[in-house]
Amino acid sequence: MIDRQPIDTYARQISDEKQTSVITGSTASTDKRFNALFTDYADPDSLRKLAAKIKDHTLHHLDTYLEQAEASLQRNGVTVHFADSGDDARETVLNILRGHEVTQLTKSKSMASEEIHLNPYLIENGIEVLESDLGEFIIQLDGDEPSHIVRPIIHKNRREIARTFQREGIAEDYNDDPGTITRRARVHLREKYMLAQAVITGGNFISAESGRLVLVTNEGNTRFGMAPSKVHIALVGIEKLVPTDRDLGVFLNLLGRSATGQQLTVYTEFISGPKDDSQPSGPEHMHVVFMNHGRTDVLDSNCREILRCIRCSACQNVCPVYRQASGHAYRSPYGGPIGAVLSPLLFGDRFPELADLPKASSLCGACNEVCPVDIPIPDLLLRLRDKAKRAHIPQPGDLPMTPFATLATSPSLWRTAMTMSKAMNHLPIQVAPVRPLQDWLGQRTLPDWHGGDFRKWLKARKEK
Ligand code: SF4
Q1: Could you tell me the distance, in angstroms and rounded to a whole number, from the CA of residue 255 to the centre of ligand 1?
Q2: For residue 326, what is the enclosing H or E element?
Q3: Whose C-alpha lies nearest to ligand 1, atom 4?
Q4: Confidence band, pLDDT 50/70/90 cuts, at residue 190
Q5: Per-state percent for the chain, helix, strand, coil, to nearest 5
Q6: Taking 70 as the threshold, does the pLDDT of residue 335 lie above it?
Q7: Parent domain of 434
Q8: CA-based nearest residue to 324, from 312, 336, 315, 314
Q9: What's residue 3's pLDDT?
Q10: Is residue 272 in a domain?
Q11: Which of 236, 260, 295 is the last residue in one of the domains?
């Protein structure tokens, strides 16, 4: 995971420029989503309830559907691998590449590969990896980390990108016109695509019934990457299955609208195996690597609903905490509400400090309202807070809240505190007894004290 300060500390320090980029990008996406869903469907809620049901059913029978998907994929000529841990997944991918003598590849955006830090691993092992998604390509040039599931560079503006292109020699001069930036990237990437021997993708869905792998992009980069490559490796989380092809209609309608406000993502590919003799180009070998990486533990937990997630990013876009803090504040590939739940579950054993993430929420419920698979994110956050509390893992806000709980549950202590409370208006923050409490108070503007008279009023009323 990324070594950064706790979320509240990081959020206080981000630059105005970065915060503006995140707020502008996420607000625009939320508005588009709303228009796309509510214009086309009289009752979008019933569609997401249906999607939730399909996902729950699939997760409940995951063992059966995995076996069925394996058989369907094999029937289509695909080699299927199962990787239990992140290390297993990385080694499996490397072994496949070595088996096909691949030294150069393109890779499309894949959250599964971000989870296991696949790029640095492959590069360390002598494979040249080029990110083909424009946002991920810029991240790669900058040595940065993605901060959003769908728009990995939501935290950057076009001026920063133009400077990157000039610095890296992608362009000779500075030009921050978005059309020019895109054209320049296309010219640069096209040449590299043609040299690639393999392509690595994720997988948005796999139909267990037919073994069809579904990939969606708005840039056509997976399609383009596949044309010259001889080998295609899809790294797919085991929860990405749907039972039948018919179910794909439900999810594709929800994914495009929830992610980018489009009726359908521009390039929606249904891949049914390696190329056959009638096809002029495309991979001759196709491998699907099903990755567990903690998902079966999540399935066993009381937060299994999070595995319904289709990585649309709607919850990130609408979250007031994400908008203020940015995705980087969450210190894992998943920022926003999805990250606040999924990251402690997937990575918490190795990084217990991520237990602070479920506190990064006002529990306003907006994330659940927009989620296309109706994940009860606020409930899951509360379950995780409870789990951290029971495990005695320190969380932000513990210091003021624990003594407050003692105070608020003892009538005599409360009465004494009330008589002294007026003094709070006049005390400098520095007199707070311990440093963390000073810090906590330093980030807040306490309202002037106006209370303390209720008991007197009630007593007088009773005596009347
Ligand atoms: S939790 Fe729901 S809203 Fe958030 S990314 Fe996943 S599917 Fe989308």
Answers
A1: 9
A2: none
A3: 315
A4: confident
A5: 55, 10, 35
A6: yes
A7: 401-463
A8: 336
A9: 65
A10: yes
A11: 295
Ligand 1, residues at Cβ distance < 6 Å: 258, 309-315, 338, 370-373, 375
State the helix-helix crossing angle for 134-142 and 158-167, rounded to 10 degrees. Answer: 60
Question: Could you read off the pLDDT of 447-457 as tens digits, one per residue?
Answer: 777 766 777 78
231: confidence class by pLDDT, cuts 50, 70, 90: very high
Q: Is the dihedral of CA 170, 172, 173, 179 positive or negative?
A: negative
Best residue for ligand 1 mutational test, from 148, 371, 381 (most atoms within 8 Å of Cβ): 371
Q: Any idea which residue has 């509360």 for tokens?
A: 382
| Tokens, residue 356 | 């602070």
201 membership: H or E segment, kind and range: strand 198-201
Closest-lying ligand 1 atom to the alpha carbon of residue 313: 5
> Is the confidence at residue 117, as pLDDT, over 90?
yes
Evaluate if residue 395 carries a pLDDT over 80.
no
Which tokens belong to 180?
A: 């020019």
424 pLDDT tier (thresholds 50, 70, 90): low
80: part of which helix (H) or strand (E)? strand 79-83
Number of domains in the chain: 2
